[in-house]
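S.,

Sequence below, as promised.
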Amino acid sequence: MRIAIVGGSGFLGKNFTYYLLKNSKWNITIISHNTKEFPLSKKDRQRVAFITADVFNTKAMAKALHECDVAYYFVHMMGQKDGDLYALEEKAAYSFKSAIDSSSVKRLIFMGGLGNDSDKLSKHLASRHKTGRILRSLDREVIEFQASMVIGRGSVAFDIITNLVDKLPVMPLPKSSVTLTQPIRLEDALVYLHLAAKVSISDNVVIQIGGPTILSYEELYRMYAKASSKKRIIIRTPFIPAMVEAFFLDLFTPKIHARIGKAMVESLGNEMIVTSDNARTLFPKVEPKDIEPEINLLAK
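The prediction came back faster than expected:
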């Protein structure tokens, strides 16, 4: 089987590639608008093809998907300097949908975000959900995963937390820091993505995934501070708007992380917890592990 990873040069794409090379015999096509080949052994290199194609170029994307059976869509526009996030992601989704229509792909798997549609979602989460609806309108098999923060080395969302804790002795947090979230370890997310290629589904489906721990963002900051042996004064105050955190991102995190982080800041006000048990129904053997041991390991 040949699978395509669209947005394959990013955090999730790279880690999923390494995971599949170790745990499957599939051939892999990495598709990205700015493909940078990452380190592979000579043996693994025989199973991986790197193709440069822009998601907004439907013909180029359809060509890149040639002979692929399953496609994974890991594209987002949060790091873009110019343009409206919501409009860009909607345009990308429609363009990619057209490319799939012209391809041999039989199943599409998309990684989106948790969040309740009945709430007033942030632009970032509303965009993720809109992308999912567009892709699920395909006449192919579509699985949309919805997840909160992925805990792993290189995860922008988690790196933002580590940067702020590492560099701010006193951390004033906005009132949204009490919002609940349900992070998942990278390894568990990769297991779900792998199994999704062959799981039996009767219709296009949304699958919510998360670890066993539900906690607030403030508790997540404190967990990492404790794991890294950083004595930090963490203060939650209703007088500091969430955008102050965006200001800190500009000061204390890499530019690309800051751009992505600022797109995420508004989402701190949206609860991101699993409310459906269909992940357990479809993947009964998957038991996501607690995030604290992983954070302790990453903090070393």
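The mean pLDDT is 88.

Coffee later?
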